[in-house]
## 1
Amino acid sequence: MDPGPLGKDYLAIVNPAAGGGRSRKLLGPALDRLRAGGLEVKVAVTHAPGQATEIAREAYERGVRNFIAVGGDGTSYEVVNGLYPEALEGERPSLAFLPLGTGNSFLRDFSDRGVDHAIESLLAQRTRACDVMRLRHRTGIIHYINLLSMGFSADVATLRARRFSAWGELGYVTSIFLTLARFNRRPFPVRVEGEEGFDSRRCLFLTFNNSKFTGGTMMIAPKAEINDGLVEYVRWGPIGRLGLIRNLPGLYDGTHIQHPLAERNAVRRVEFNLDAPIDVMVDGEVLTLHCEELDVLPAALNVVA
């Protein structure tokens, strides 16, 4: 794949609803800083879920190679899925971020300074090679750059998205407590590279990571690297409610992987043997998928970070 030059021309794909409308309010000053620094930035605004994917796909077909995802994790997820698989046959695209929504967990691997760091990276033309994760499911393929999770973390995200999305931070906290009350620890049969059989043990959650953070500040995969050509697999076994509550701080500093019930591995391929579709969280988006296989597209994307 030809990496291609970064260039000064960008298409900013904007989700104006991100962060409860915060994205729309902060966009103007951010664009002024980029244009004052010599970048040419065109803007495309989305009006419905999934539209960022369509915009990115059509733009790549027209020859656009440099993109800015303006919003949260969900916006960059949609843009990535507009670029792949088409970009595998052409020039490697570049993706920058303006995290003007509720947050961008992926960008936190590089800095906790959010928008300021993102703008500085764009002006400095600072790029890094990044792997793209490819998930095949029963009805198609999706791509992501942050993480796929199933179990407790996905249950919290699903509940919040379906019942408490308008509640802001309170909706997130409420979803955590309700999920704790139900506390459904269950098996997700999975076989990672190098193992002979499927692991069908009950667990609290499984995550399949390209980067370290999720939920803004939760370091779910402290050993993940975005360009090592591997999926960072983290499993937490059937810990009890009190054990989880006691160990919650470890999810924010990465020490949870030292728990006796925790496991991690770095692999190139994962297979699933699920009986039916399940709720998963992918880069902040809640989906219901019958997962079948996960692998890595090494260094398939340039990220500006």
## 2
Amino acid sequence: MALRQLGTWGIALGGAVVGGGVAAMHYTGMAALELPGRISWSPDLVVTSIVLGVALAPAAILVALKRNDWIAVAAATALLSAAFSSTHFVGMGAVTITPDPDAAD
């Protein structure tokens, strides 16, 4: 999406899809966890983690596609890393695992 000739909004939309995909992958993986406990979520932190990924990934792609020098590459790399990291770490901060005393060891 970002590489098609859709202008700045198309690039931003493509980046948002990347950020949303990372969030979907993260939360799908978390939903697949099987552990002897109960997982509960802090909705405000879940939303914050998704918003950070969906906001930072388009910024990274915009920087990468609008400029072509090593500073842009470094900035885009930092922004995309921040998008992935913030989605993961804020999302993990949203998790509370309560041990289940009835669960078998």
## 3
Amino acid sequence: MADDAIFDAARAEAYAMPLDKIDPSVQDRFVTNTIWPFFERLRHEDPVHYTAESEFGPFWSVTTFNDIMTVETNHHVFSSEGAITIYDPQPGDMQMPMFIAMDPPKHDVQRKTVAPIVSHESLMSFAPLIRERAGKILDELPIGEPFDWVDRVSVELTVQMLATLFDFPFEERHKLKYWSDLATTDTSEMMTQEEGQAEFMAIATYFKNLWDQRVGGTHNDLITVLANGEATKDMPLMEFLGNLLLLIVGGNDTTRNSITGGLIALTQNPDQLAKVRANPALFDSMIPEMIRWQTPVAHMRRNAKEDFEIGGKTIKAGEKVIMWYVSGNRDETVIDNPEAFIVDRERPRQHVAFGFGIHRCVGMRLAEMQLRIVWEEILKRFPTIEILGEPVRAKSCFLRSYTSMMVRIPA
């Protein structure tokens, strides 16, 4: 959590502010990790909340666990078409369709094509290589010297896993991290719209070459599966790119930020770390608890296709609806003691970090498997890892991301 004085000031602001002026999308609060009292107040006083003015225009916020589930399971009313985040497409932006931003039936056939590669059987075939690569990364960490956990561990582990899933040239794997950041970060201060489009076209060209090489192939990697799947083999280039970026972001950000968030959680809760060391069977519940506690995807968006009443409010057709997973996962009416990190929760998968319904994250078991292997290997090696100061968080209300966190492993 944030420094106590900063957090106390945020709580005072959250409860002094007129209710109708609360804007949960303010990105600076995600940087300082002071979002919590604003969502707490909304859950208690105005769980379906309308923000008339924001950086992203007007939108509805759905902040409680059960209301989020209502929106997620009414895909006939709440559409994913057009946009899945609070950010609206801008004139001149490249259109890159992806199955997470589609409604049935097209969504269903494309998702079905990708699903086998993240099935239990497929994941088990990847597990030994993930464990081997994780062990190598951890064994090369400096002892007794400060280093950046995000860069050396969280990023490196996830890009190696992505390279494995895509059968991507291993020596070029860090392109995957750059492309993931490009797809999820506001780049307007870094490059012009034309430069951004050129970057995305370069990505498309790179992957199209890999695609062409794998047509007719039988290897069990994501590009080969897409290149030969009946529902995906003829998709247009921009749709192919959109789905690849979705899989890159989905395979990168959830795991990457939960690895860092997990270290923060265990450091802040040494009693919980002691429980896991004493009883390794608790990995089964600790990993989903890490994901709930971190909630790496802060929100997802839907677009109302018709008027719908929820929480005593009427959302009108055409309005933007934001499901704040980060708030639903702190809903004390559904999750007992939700602010606490508890490795032996009775129902650890009772969370909305992966969404729910037809758009529930197709790679959620992959994320859990990666995190389990990583933390098994970390706890084998290191009795203590010290966090040196507050982590640096990204300016985003979509992903709860870390850009840096300095740590030291005592000698």
